[in-house]
Specification:
By secondary structure, the chain is α/β, with parallel strands linked by helices. It has 14 helices and 13 strands. It folds into 2 domains: 142 residues, Glycogen Phosphorylase B (Rossmann fold); 200 residues, Glycogen Phosphorylase B (Rossmann fold). The strands form 2 sheets. It has a 7-stranded mixed beta sheet with strand order 9-8-7-10-11-13-12, sandwiched between helices. A 6-stranded parallel beta sheet has the order 3-2-1-4-5-6. The longest helix has 17 residues.
């Protein structure tokens, strides 16, 4: 088949929201190269569906499930056997390689040469790239998957949006506001709630209006409520669990900036040219930082152990401890609620960066609860 004539394309996405967002550069580049093709995405669960269901580059989203039954496997094979001209797989798992083999006439994937199944996967793929041993930024690694196609690559993040709902009108949010996303779905990445509460107070006292967001789980709602309960000002709103993923995207797009942990919403924010402040713990900033807006470069530019670094519209905070990054799921140094590397990052450090990059002009006096009585 002519390599420039793919009519049907399937992209196999990872389950995590942040990973999916960083993979939208693949689907966007494919759409630009093959504007008339039918481009579908196979996701393991509803998280990937959140990212791709309202993506204008995508025709259909197929949800397979993380652990399908034998019956589901057989149904999948019968329905999709070699039904796509091209399959692009950004997952290094054995299961996704088998999915690629089932569905694609031509198959491009990623192989980690350290895995015992590497030789087996080389048989399954028509073309492949080797997972880098270096800490390569995920977005650049994703674009490298497209090398065998020889197409133009776009270093962008494409996000869903809700263009119907006027959130500012519905929730009485002023024109100028900052989105502060305090919870992390991964406990080891959670900045201490007391740090979030202190930073929130500092910003509110300065006169910023904050829209504090979080997910719909009870844990995330409790984190946001604990932060807001510590405040005396009214220039803040709790949106945790009250807006959809697409609405969060629109909220961030219309804001003055975003503050949050190493999480999916931070990558959601990187789709627009606003200041982004991200608090990192055990994960490598060079690999997982939000990507500077439409920046065409091979590396993110962020280096481990530097407490505060700003590159273009992205500011990253991290500890200077020797153990950072550790990639760990649990801290082995100190068995406390919060990782020491996150406790090291102080609220004043973040506050100073925010007021330097997003100055209030003119300053807005904070409205206290007492002043309204």
């Amino acid at each position: 088949m002519n390599e420039n004539n793919y009519k049907t394309i399937l992209f196999l996405a990872t389950p995590a929201i942040g990973d999916c967002l960083l993979a939208t550069c693949i689907t966007h580049s494919l759409r630009k190269a093959y504007p008339d093709a039918k481009i579908d995405v196979l996701v393991p669960d509803s998280r990937g569906e959140l990212v791709f269901s309202k993506n204008e580059d995508i025709n259909d989203v197929i949800v397979m499930g993380l652990k399908p039954t034998l019956k589901q496997y057989l149904t999948f094979i019968r329905k999709y056997w070699r039904s796509y001209d091209l399959v692009v797989n950004d997952r290094s798992s054995d299961r996704s390689a088998i999915y690629a083999f089932i569905t694609g006439k031509k198959r491009i994937g990623v192989i980690d040469s350290r895995h015992s199944s590497a030789k087996f996967k080389k048989i399954l793929f028509s073309n492949y790239i080797i997972e880098s041993d270096d800490i390569e930024h995920r977005l650049m690694r994703n674009l490298r998957i497209l090398d065998p196609l020889g197409i133009k690559k776009y270093p962008v993040v494409i996000v869903p949006e809700d263009k119907q709902t006027n959130l500012q009108k519905e929730f009485n949010i002023p024109t100028k506001y900052i989105v502060l996303h305090s919870p992390s779905s991964n406990e080891i990445k959670q900045w201490p709630v007391s740090h979030w509460a202190e930073l929130t107070k500092q910003l509110l006292d300065k006169g910023y209006f904050l829209a504090i967001t979080g997910g719909k789980t009870e844990t995330e709602k409790e984190i946001v409520e604990a932060i807001i309960n510590e405040q005396q000002q009214n220039n803040v709103i709790n949106l945790s669990g009250k807006i959809s993923f697409a609405q969060l995207s629109t909220l961030i797009k219309n804001s003055q900036g975003f503050i949050g942990p190493d999480c999916g919403p931070a990558h959601l924010a990187s789709s627009v040219n606003i200041p982004i402040f991200t608090i990192f713990g055990p994960t490598p900033v060079s690999m997982w930082s939000p990507w500077p807006y439409k920046k065409e470069q091979e590396k993110s530019g962020f280096i481990a152990k530097i407490p505060t670094t700003t590159i273009d519209n992205i500011t990253v905070f991290q500890s200077s401890r020797e153990c950072v990054p550790c990639y760990g799921k649990r801290c082995t140094i100190k068995k406390t609620q919060y990782s020491p590397c996150l406790e090291d990052i102080k609220p004043m450090q973040v506050f100073n960066a925010v007021i330097d990059i997003i100055p209030l002009n003119p300053p807005i006096p904070p409205v206290t609860k007492a002043s309204q009585l």
